[in-house]
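explain this:

___
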Amino acid sequence: MTKPPSRIHQRKAELRREIVDTAFDCFAEKGYHATGIADIATRLGIGHGTFYRYFANKRDIIDHVIDEVSGRIFGALDDDIEPESAATITEYAALIARIGDSLNRVLLDDPRTAHLLLFHATGIDDELTERVYGLIDATEILMTRYLEHGIRVGYLRADIDTASTAKAALGMIVAGLVAGMRTPDPASMSVYSHAVRRLFIDGVRAAAR
């Protein structure tokens, strides 16, 4: 039988999590390059030595922050919204609505996420830039799967360029994130989200037979 973690191990895990979350705050507010280990340690109320017992350096911790961001995004896209779960245009519309709601919870309810991905992460180094591009590519691939499935089943138009349409849809999402960061008004974002969903449904639906 596996022993439950001791209070010491639990506290270590909690502190590690607190360091990541505090670094997330600092990077989103000041940017990666303007943030020092001292900023993170001071805000959290720990010494530099404590920080270095958990992370090798600032570059090490940004990897953990990006891991958390990726986990939040793809954790929101669970089995209930697999492409194969929609067999009609009505079910597809409901699927798009659930995806939109899930991404909104991840990206708009915590503005740090979009701010870090869109404005800071790609300016750190080539390796991290490729990680962000990989996250974008994975999202586009998932969107392409939804379109390809709809074409096979017959509720979406057969002449869709699925890859380009997926890129366009992701572009609309990014534009919405930027607008939400500039003017964080829930009512305006709801209107924008509804417009995107209509475009991504009415613009690709097959003609009624």
Notes: The CA atoms of residues 169 and 199 lie 9 Å apart.
